[in-house]
Amino acid sequence: MPDQKTKTSKSMSAAGAAEPDTLEQPDPEGLSPISRRSFVGAAALAGATILSPMALTQSRQQTLSGRQGDNASDPGPENAPLLAMNHSANTPPFTDTGNPGPVWYSFDLTPKRLEGGGWTHQVTERELPPSKDLAGVNMRLTAGSFRELHWHLADEWAIMLAGKARVSVMQPDGKMFIDDIGVNDLWYFPAGMPHSIQGLEGEGCEFLLVFDQGAFSEDDTFLISELLAHTPPEIIEKNMGWTRQEWDQLPATQLYIFPADLPDNLNADNRFLGSNRETQTQFTFKMSSMAPTVKATGGEVRIIDSKNFPVSTNIAAAQVTLKPGAIRELHWHPNVSEWQYWIKGKGRMTIVTAEGKARTMDFNANDVGFVPAMAGHYIENTGNEDLVFLEMFKTGHYADFSVNEWIARMPDRMAQAHLKLPLSVIRRAPQTKNPILPK
Ligand code: MN
Ligand code: MN
Fold this sequence. Notes:
The chain has 13 helices and 26 strands. Among the domains are: 133-285, Jelly Rolls (Sandwich), CATH 2.60.120.10; 290-437, Jelly Rolls, CATH 2.60.120. It has a seven-stranded antiparallel beta sheet, with no helix packed on it. The chain has a seven-stranded antiparallel beta sheet with strand order 2-3-4-11-6-9-14, with no helix packed on it. Strands 5, 7, 8, 10, 12 and 13 form a six-stranded antiparallel beta sheet that branches. By secondary structure, the chain is α+β, with helices and mostly antiparallel strands. The model is unreliable at 1-66 (pLDDT under 50). The two termini are 46 Å apart. The structure holds manganese (II) ion (2 copies). One manganese (II) ion binds next to loops.
């Protein structure tokens, strides 16, 4: 390592003279500059010159005892508003090491596609590259405005964030389902099934869509306008009986999101469908009137997957509410990655992956969080109001492992051999799974 000496002496001088310690060279050992700085600072204080990542874990005691020597002074430029919003991103807890990849993005960093009837923007694999399982779209429709009749390759899960909408979806057997959706209600449209969304009276609506393909794009959907505009008019005449002059009046380009008159009431639309109305499959789920799956002093969890919402065969969700100071306990999910949407409040999450890589970030409303498959994580409400967020999974069945429950199942000798603590201390931990732990 030709640069070791330079870095060590630089750190030593930084520790002595309180100069900023910026390490801008590539990092062949996979340590982030921040964690390396902490370690190098500790090693320098201890008079050591060890720098390998293996030594990092081996000399944990040294590192911890060197914490008082850390110097976080930063006399150069800084983005103060960003630091105020996400302090953990820049100054992580000392337990963060390595680089497990990005875990945070925000819809408020993505450009809105503005249309006459509303807008849309998205956080996909393009914005958050490790998120291969799911992608999200945040959309607004003013009163009466439509998201044009369309279909796509991915399954679509949705939650209403504000206002009300009317949704429609048709099955291959020709039966159509129409329903009205309010705040905290859900819908699920399987791939290929044509559907529409329309903002209702008052403020219209805003909602979050989640697709079971990380690379999904809201611009890459099949639209009824484009299907008709790109079919030769003589075929339209044979297929629909519409003349060339009538074909000319069809939209020449996509409508996508556009203003329209408010619909008739829901009963009238269902009367219109008559026997063609789908009554067997429920494509909407009224989460607004669902009792919590878990209710604790620190908050609530509602789990919605194919067990209680049978049509949602490939996307499972948990809506979590945490009171100030409460945590979503340390856990992991055994099947897939987790994609989060933060609805309200403020919190902090750490993910811990294999090889001890760990990353902590702060989150606010309209942010997206990502947890790699199998990675351990917790979420803490660090704000003064309730925190509400969604855990989303590309699976039909929600599942998680509680670390506390696992420890509780370990026979005494097994637990002591691994944790190196007195048994009385080990058993002080909760002996059951508690998805939410109070402050
Ligand atoms: Mn859609
Ligand atoms: Mn989770």
